[in-house]
Every structure is written in C-alpha cells, then in structure tokens.
Amino acid sequence: MWRYAVGAGAALLLAFGGFLLFQQGPARGPLAAALQPAPATAGTTTPLPDVAPAADAKTREQKRFDRYDKDRNDAVSRDEYFAARHKAFAKLDTNGDGKLSFEEWAAKSIGKFTGADADKSGTLTRTEFATTAPTRKVPGSRCACGKPAPTPSPAAKEGEEEN
Question: Is residue 108 within 8 Å of residue 92, measured between CB atoms?
Fold first, then answer.
C-alpha cells in the first residue's frame, strides 16, 4: 500500500513542478540563452557548398567487378569468373583426378559422423548425435572494447560449415 502513496506523492510533485514552470512563461535563464540560436552577424557565416561532398566514387558493384578482373583489362573472362570455384573444387578434390566423389565432397561430414560414433556401431545414439550439434555464436561476441574475440573450438568450426 505504501508504494501507491509514494507514487501518488511523486506524481503530485511532478504536476506541481510543471505548473510552476508553466507559470513562469518563456525561459529566461542561462540555459535559455545557451539554447537560443546565436544572432547571425554579417560576413561571419560561411555559405554552404552547391554540391554535397561525395564519398567513394566506386560503387559496390564496381568493387566486385574489380575483384574478379585479375588482369585489369576491364573484362572478366570465363577463367577469371570461375577462378574461386576452381580453387574450392581443387580443395575438395583430394586425390586430384578432376572428379568429385561423394566421399570427397562429404569428407568433413563423414569425419564428423565417425568422430561422433563413439562405440563404432555405424549408428548414432541420441547422446552421440548431440555431439554433432553446431555451436551457436553468442550475439554481440564481436566488440570493439579492446578485448580479443574468443576463438572457436575446432568442433565449433566444423559445426558452422555444414555439408
């Protein structure tokens, strides 16, 4: 009950304070002088520029084009366009035969499965399967406060890249 009485008293004090401020009319103190715009004197103001300053002239698409155009001839060839895909394919093609088998493509997932199958039965129980769950990043883990960001564990890195 006392909370209601304190709340009502605070509300009455706020209302009375507002009434007093309203009765004084326009503010005439040092705070009011600071809030009022300074009078413009002739010749002291600098005119605004006709054109707003531009940021970087390159657009996002131009930057992306420049990343692909390795020889800087203002044309992206087929080889330049697929260079990143060739690197990714070569990384997966472990035996170098130019063909990607299922085992090569799913090597990370196969390794994850065999690592989680503790009893080597070829199946995962509920507890074994729970070890394959990807670890979620904590929101706000990146900060600019000077502390180094926590390094994810190897299991967390595997969980982020699902095949």
Answer: no
pTM: 0.38
Average pLDDT by consecutive 10-residue portion of the chain (163 residues)?
Answer: 87 82 63 61 74 76 88 89 89 88 88 90 89 81 61 52 46
Q: What is the pLDDT of residue 73?
A: 92
- Measured at the CA of 132, the angle between CA 131 and CA 133, to 5 degrees, comes to 95
CA torsion sign for 57, 62, 64, 65 is negative
CA distance 54 to 84: 33
Tokens of 72: 């800087």
User: Which residues are CB-neighbours of 119 under 8 A, at least 6 positions away?
Assistant: 125, 128
CA-based torsion, 136, 117, 112, 124: positive or negative: negative
Q: 57: which DSSP letter?
A: S
Cα 11 from Cα 54, distance rounded (Å): 51
Q: How far apart are CA 71 and CA 77, in angstroms?
A: 10
